[in-house]
């Protein structure tokens, strides 16, 4: 049986971190890197003797996750977000794989839950992430500041069971988070010297809404699907606003 490090990064996740930690308690080691939370998350983590918690300034998601990955003692890592939970069936599947891994990394599908209701569409139906992996040949792509992506030089597989992703706290919180993602994406484009034209800036946000709500069947999720599609379109618009702001700041 391979030993497992469960790794999480946090920032003001007191409403979710308790369920997250409980669901990964089967790991041989739990490592949590907090970005100086102010809502009680850090105090809660300090009260857990079985959790290795420390604080580190947040620069971007990729650098923070690479930092957290360095703190893991074991080669095999389960990396999840603070608002995610490993259900019992997924836990059992992970433990079975660790007895004799046939791949170097495994994708896990996510079930997106909004206000207690699973979202079945909006593009979430095909969402899967590399979450269980051997860190010896896996790392987070450094060029990305947001929507970080794991790169592995080894073989990959896909787990059958899904993890629960409680991604939506409130409309205000989700909007704030999506706009922040947009700003980081804008900074990423700026650093790559990308210069999106007027047409792209106007069409891309509208297409994002159309893509999520119509092409990816968000309309079948009802009001929730409309809300998610609209907020994600705002995130794309924010991306180009940030590029414009940074270019103006530079000149």
Automatic annotation (TrEMBL):
UniProt KW Transmembrane keyword: no
Short name of one Pfam family: Glycos_transf_2
UniProt key word rRNA-binding: no
Record family assignment: Belongs to the glycosyltransferase 2 family. WaaE/KdtX subfamily.
Organism annotation: Pustulibacterium marinum
Matches recorded under CDD domains: Beta4Glucosyltransferase (cd02511)
Name of the molecule in the record: Glycosyltransferase involved in cell wall bisynthesis
Residue stretches making up the Glycosyltransferase 2-like domain: 5-117
GO molecular function: transferase activity
Source organism phylogeny: Bacteria, Pseudomonadati, Bacteroidota, Flavobacteriia, Flavobacteriales
Keywords annotated in UniProt: Transferase
SUPFAM superfamilies named among the record's database cross-references: Nucleotide-diphospho-sugar transferases (SSF53448)
């Amino acid at each position: 049986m391979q030993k497992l490090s469960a790794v999480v990064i946090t920032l003001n996740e007191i409403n979710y971190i308790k369920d997250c930690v409980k669901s990964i308690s089967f790991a041989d080691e739990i490592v949590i890197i907090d970005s100086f939370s102010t809502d009680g998350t850090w105090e809660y983590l300090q009260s857990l003797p079985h959790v290795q918690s420390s604080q580190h300034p947040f620069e971007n998601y990729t650098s923070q996750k690479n930092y957290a990955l360095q703190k893991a003692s074991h080669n095999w890592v389960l990396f999840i977000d603070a608002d995610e939970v490993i259900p019992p069936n997924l836990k059992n599947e992970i433990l079975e794989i660790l007895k004799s891994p046939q791949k170097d990394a495994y994708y896990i599908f996510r079930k997106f839950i909004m206000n207690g209701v699973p979202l079945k569409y909006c593009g979430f139906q095909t969402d899967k992430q590399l979450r269980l992996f051997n860190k010896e040949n896996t790392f987070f792509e450094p060029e990305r500041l947001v929507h970080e992506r794991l790169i592995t030089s080894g073989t990959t597989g896909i787990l059958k069971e899904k993890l629960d992703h409680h991604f939506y706290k409130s409309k205000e919180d989700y909007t704030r988070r999506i706009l922040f993602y947009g700003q980081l994406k804008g900074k990423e484009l700026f650093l790559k010297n990308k210069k999106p034209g007027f047409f792209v800036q106007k069409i891309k946000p509208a297409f994002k809404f159309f893509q999520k709500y119509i092409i990816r069947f968000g309309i079948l999720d009802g009001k929730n699907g409309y809300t998610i599609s609209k907020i994600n379109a705002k995130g794309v618009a924010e991306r180009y606003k940030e590029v414009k702001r940074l270019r103006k700041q530079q000149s």
